[in-house]
Every structure is written in structure tokens, then in C-alpha cells.
């Protein structure tokens, strides 16, 4: 695997949608409508405030992420990201590579910290990964997420400072 | 004081802006741009997903709040609100009345809980009030808010269930 991470371009939309669609439909990890159309999903992913990157493995887009300020005004020094990896590509370190890239890039842009607002607790793989990458759990919201199989489960707020 | 809380209407915009403007300009409590114009502030306050109420004291708008789902999809059962009180009207129980109204209204709309994502810790009056109204601190985000006088201060995530 030779992973390249670069800014997303309009021709990447098909690949990004093919990654997003199964994740939205499953409804297990993102608090987003399960029935969103391609247009609705891409409008969200490419929101004006989002800077979007893709991870490419030998020309194939295998993951993508967005970076944005988590708040405005007095909260604009803390970054926020959302990452997705193609279901057929999971377990290959792509999320790790994207997160490391986002931490470097956020620091370069002058952000002082990174915050995830809503990590579904049952998404154990993600929680473990973010911990390994230096994030602490700074909040636990009881029953904040309605999991399609497990019912109401907690969501975590995770945070780390940037160098 | 005879407080009425009702849905906001377009003619309330002047009054709402006159309440919002000093709060935005002060930049001490809301993570919103301090330099927002009237149009930008009202567009935010009246976002499509916001249901907006005003508190009226004998015909004068003395406070307002919005209610929205805090997340979409699997997180849409938790409500979120933002409240503002006119600076000349503070200390008269208007925020309490608006919050109580919002808790009732959110429960009626079927929300299961209410969450505040970003309560600036130095806004002690607000923290005390939300605690009194049944909210718990479920998260503490270090140095999440750049206060104009105090520098980087923590922000709290506060949460309560609805009946």
C-alpha cells in the first residue's frame, strides 16, 4: 500500500459517495440521516467550512476526511474532523494515516487542539484508535445515540492538544 | 413582570437583534463571531432547523431562545437550545422562564434529553442556573474558549434527561 493524502477535487465525488453511502445507510457510527441522498451527503461533506482530503492508494480513493473549526468566534482555535474509510479497506491503517495527517495539517493551520464531539461509544475501534493517537475522553453523553441494533448508547467527546 | 413566551415572528427581528448584538460584541459567552452583522446573526438565529421563541414582558421582547435537534440521524432525540436575555433585563428570572419553557416544549416534541455543547465555564451565572434546572456537567473541554479578557478558558457540556 502506498498511501497519498491530498485535497479532494470535484472528480473524487463518486468515490467519496461510494465510501459514505454504506456508512450512512448502516447508521452505526455517524449521527447523520440514514436516508440521505448522494446530493445531501456530498453537500454536507463539502460544506463551505470543511476542508476535504482524500486518501489514495495507487490511484484509488480509499478514505476521506474533512477538517473544520469546531466552533466560531472564541472557539475557532479548536479543530474538528470527520473521517471515513471504505468498508473494503478497513484494518489497513488508513484512518490512522488520515488522522495523523489531519493533526499535522490542523497544527499548521494554527489550531491549538482537536475535538471530536460525538464518538459513538460502541464504535470501539474508533475509540481505541483515537486514544492511541493521543485523544482523551473529556465528556460522556448518556444515551446520546440511537444505534439501529443496540438502541440508546452513549457518545463520547474526545480531545487532544496540538503541538 | 408578566412574562409571555411565544413563537418569534418576523416583526420581532429588531428586538432580537438589539438583544443579540451586545452579547455578540462582548464575545464572552457565545462562540460566535464578534463582528457578525445583523443579517449574519439573524440568519444564524433563524436557521431552518431552529424553532425560535421570544419572552415578552408587557409587549416588550426581553429575551429569546432557539430549540433544535442537537444532532441528526441517530442523535436527533436530544435537543439543544441557545438563550439570550436583554442586558437591561438580566436578573429577573427570564432565562429561567425560557429554559423551563424549552424543557417542556422539547418534551412535548418528543425529545428525550437536552444538551448544551458549549457553556463557557467563566459564565458562572449560566452554569449555576443550568445546574439548578437539572443539568449535569457531562464534559469539560480544556481551554476551548478564548475569552476576550481572561484568555483560554474551559467549556462545559451540560445535559439533562427530559420527562
Describe the 3D structure:
Two copies of one chain form a homodimer. A seven-stranded mixed beta sheet of chain A has the order 1-2-3-4-5-7-6. Helix content of chain A is 28%, strand content 37%. Chain A is α+β, with helices and mostly antiparallel strands and 163 residues long. The longest helix of chain A has 15 residues, at 94-108. Chain A has a single domain (3-161), classed as Gcn5-related N-acetyltransferase (GNAT) (Aminopeptidase, 3-Layer(aba) Sandwich), CATH 3.40.630.30. Chain A has helices at residues 13-26, 38-45, 94-108, 124-132; strands at residues 3-7, 51-57, 60-69, 78-85, 113-120, 136-147, 151-161. The mean pLDDT of chain A is 96. The first copy, chain A, has four helices and seven strands, in the order E-H-H-E-E-E-H-E-H-E-E. The interface between A and B is large, with 36 and 36 residues.
Helices and strands, with pairings:
The structure is a homodimer of 163-residue chains.
Chain A: E1 3-7, H1 13-26, H2 38-45, E2 51-57, E3 60-69, E4 78-85, H3 94-108, E5 113-120, H4 124-132, E6 136-147, E7 151-161
Parallel strand pairs in A: 4-5
Antiparallel strand pairs in A: 1-2, 2-3, 3-4, 5-7, 6-7
Count of separate DSSP helical elements of chain A: 4
The major beta sheet of chain A can be summarized as: 7 strands, mixed
Strand order, largest beta sheet of chain A: 1-2-3-4-5-7-6
Give the helix proportion of chain A (percent range): 25-40%
Low-confidence stretches of chain A: none
CATH topology descriptor of chain A:
Aminopeptidase
How much of the sequence lies in strands of chain A comes to 35-45%
Query: Got a strand count of chain A?
Result: 7
Indicate the overall shape of chain A: globular
Distance between termini of chain A?
28 Å
Global mean pLDDT of chain A:
96
CATH class of chain A, please? Alpha Beta
Pattern of helices and strands of chain A: EHHEEEHEHEE
Structural class of chain A: alpha+beta
- The CATH homologous superfamily of chain A is termed Gcn5-related N-acetyltransferase (GNAT)
**Known CATH architecture of chain A:** 3-Layer(aba) Sandwich
Q: What value does the Rg of chain A take, in angstroms?
A: 15 Å
Kindly report the oligomeric state of this protein. Answer: homodimer
The largest interface is: A-B, 36 and 36 residues
Total domain units of chain A: 1
Amino acid at each position: 500500500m502506498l498511501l497519498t493524502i491530498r485535497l479532494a477535487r470535484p472528480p473524487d465525488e463518486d468515490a467519496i459517495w461510494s465510501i459514505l453511502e454504506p456508512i450512512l445507510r448502516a447508521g452505526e457510527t455517524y449521527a447523520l440521516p440514514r436516508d440521505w441522498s448522494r446530493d445531501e451527503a456530498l453537500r454536507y461533506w463539502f460544506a463551505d467550512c470543511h476542508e476535504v482530503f482524500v486518501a489514495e492508494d495507487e490511484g484509488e480513493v480509499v478514505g476521506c476526511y474533512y477538517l473544520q473549526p469546531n466552533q466560531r468566534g472564541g472557539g475557532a482555535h479548536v479543530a474538528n474532523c470527520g473521517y471515513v474509510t471504505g468498508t473494503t479497506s478497513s484494518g489497513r491503517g488508513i484512518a490512522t494515516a488520515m488522522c495523523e495527517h489531519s493533526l499535522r495539517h490542523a497544527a499548521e493551520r494554527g489550531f491549538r487542539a482537536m475535538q471530536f464531539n460525538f464518538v459513538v461509544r460502541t464504535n470501539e475501534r474508533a475509540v481505541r484508535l483515537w486514544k492511541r493517537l493521543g485523544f482523551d475522553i473529556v465528556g460522556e453523553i448518556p444515551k446520546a445515540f440511537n444505534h439501529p441494533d443496540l438502541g440508546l448508547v452513549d457518545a463520547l467527546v474526545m480531545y487532544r492538544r496540538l503541538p
